[in-house]
Amino acid sequence: MKNMQGQVMLSLPAEKAWEMYRNDEIITKINPQMLAHAEYIQGDGSPGSLRLFKLGPAVQSYVKESMEKIEKVEKGRSVTYQVVDGDLRKMYDPYRVTFSFIPVEGKENEMCFAEWKAEFEPLTPATPPPEKAKDAALVFLKCFDKYQLSY
Questions:
Q1: How far apart are CA 53 and CA 79, in angstroms?
Q2: What integer pLDDT is reported at residue 125 of this predicted model?
Q3: Non-local CB neighbours of 110 within 8 Å, separated by 6+ positions
Q4: Which member of 30, 41, 51, 137 has the lowest number of beta carbons within 10 Å of its beta carbon?
Q5: pLDDT at 149
């Protein structure tokens, strides 16, 4: 199994970033060019739930949509899911991602690290690592700072 990760610092508390990520209505307003629609189509966000992401025009040349099955939730902290359908599933199996929101020590009420980690296995030797997915996720997470000012 291969691994990849990245993180960005956000100027908001981890708990607030977590709530923004988990709320379909809010997450689709953060940057519609990157994420056009998010919807829990089964469940409420707890393990076993299915969440559909329809990507926006800025990333559609790479991934148009992704169906995710939530595997693990640490409330206020992280969520792990496996992609069960969509474009990434055609390139990797498995493809598992964890989004974590980690408070910055001493500034817990002001800042957090937003972390993206992926575990993946390319379906063919020619399939490149998901650098584009990582870059898009980190750019999207950084947009939380701008959006939270209006939220």
A1: 15
A2: 95
A3: 11, 12, 13, 104
A4: 41
A5: 65
Integer-rounded Cα Rg, in Å, for the chain is: 15
Give the per-residue pLDDT at 147: 87
Helix, strand, coil fractions of the chain, as percent rounded to 5: 25, 45, 30
* pLDDT at site 146: 87
- Which two tokens mark 132? 């584009």
Angle at 151 between CA 7 and CA 105, to 5 degrees: 40
Weakly modelled stretches of the chain, pLDDT under 50: none
pLDDT score for 140: 97
Q: What is the pLDDT of residues 106-144, one digit of tens each?
A: 999 999 999 999 999 999 999 999 999 999 999 999 999
Residues in CB range of 104: below 8 A, 6 or more apart: 9, 110, 111, 112, 113
Cβ proximity of 1 and 120 under 8 Å? yes
Classify burial at 29, counting beta carbons within 10 Å of its beta carbon; exposed 0-12, middle 13-18, buried 19 or more: middle
Strands 50-55 and 35-42: antiparallel
CB 104 within 8 A of CB 113: yes
